[in-house]
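Hi R.,

As promised, here are both runs. First protein below:
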Amino acid sequence: MSVAGDVLVYERLHGDEIVRVALNFGHGSCLVDVPPEAAWEVLLSSAGGRRGEGPQDGRFALAGDEALVLIRRPPGAAG
């Protein structure tokens, strides 16, 4: 778990699957880094319409007051 400014990030693990949750409690937008060696994608966003979106330059943008659930599945796993 990490906290930076108004953003709380934590991970949940199940087998080889990792889910990262990023919560932006601030009203301004921010960026959340993800490990570059993994293929991350948006599973759920409180803002809607972002499912399947990947990172840009190893980061995901969060809007103000947005919650983002990211998933990293093991290589070769179906979504």
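And here is the second one, sequence first, then its structure tokens:
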Amino acid sequence: MSTTTFTVVGMSCGGCARKVTGELSGIDAVLDVAVDLASGQVAVTSDGPADQSAFRAAVESAGYTVAGSDAATKEKTS
């Protein structure tokens, strides 16, 4: 299991958070999505290695962007 944390730019309300959560939850192997609206931080827990490009694509599909480069995305495995 791994948890990947990144910052999403442009979320300003609960509806925004639900859009991002819905898109990310649709990715195979994603077990949980936690959004901190105040900071823009999103933590995605997945069963197996993180597919950061899929996460980025899902966020963009929801109408938002992931801040920074891939280096700004942090992954923790357990």
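A quick note on the second one: The chain has a mean pLDDT of 89. Let me know what you think.

Best,
J.
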